[in-house]
Design goal:
It comes from Rubinisphaera italica. The protein has 1 helix and 11 strands. By secondary structure, the protein is α+β, with helices and mostly antiparallel strands. A hairpin with a 5-residue loop joins strand 3 and strand 4.
Amino acid sequence: MKSLLGLSGNDITMKSMAPKFKSIISLFVVLLMTGCGGSDAPELGSVSGLVTLDGKPLADAQIRFQPTSGRSSEAVTDENGNYTLRYTAEENGALPGEHQVFITTATEGQAMPAEGGDEGEWVEGREELLPEKYHAKSELKETVTAGNNTINFELTSN
C-alpha cells in the first residue's frame, strides 16, 4: 500500500533509517579520532641515573623529586646505585620543571609477616648514612625536561 506521498512501507523505513545511520557513523568517526578514553596523565620526562656516596654506588637509597607544584616521583636505588623515577605504579618519569630532591638511606624497623599467620620476624631498620643536606634539609635541586633525563648524584659523607 502506498502512502499519501506515494512511498511504500519499505521506502519509508529505509528513508527514515538513513539519517540515523549517518549519525551513528559520524559518532563512530569522532570516537576514533579522539581515541578511546584518552589519558589524564600529564606529560612526563623520564629520569634515571646513578647515586654514589664517596665515589661508591649507594644501594637501597630512597630518592624523591618534589616539583614546585604537583605530584612527586620516587625511586629506590638498586645494588649498583642505579635508579629510575616512578610517577605512579604504572608510569615512570617526573613532571617537567624544577624539583627539590631528597635522598635518604634510613628505614624503620618492621615485623615481616610470617606464613600461616604466625608472628613474623623483626627486621631492623637502617640508620641514616647521609648528611641532612641531602634529605631533611636538602640542598639538592634539579630540572627535569621532556624526554630522557640522566641525573647522577655524587654525594659525600661530609
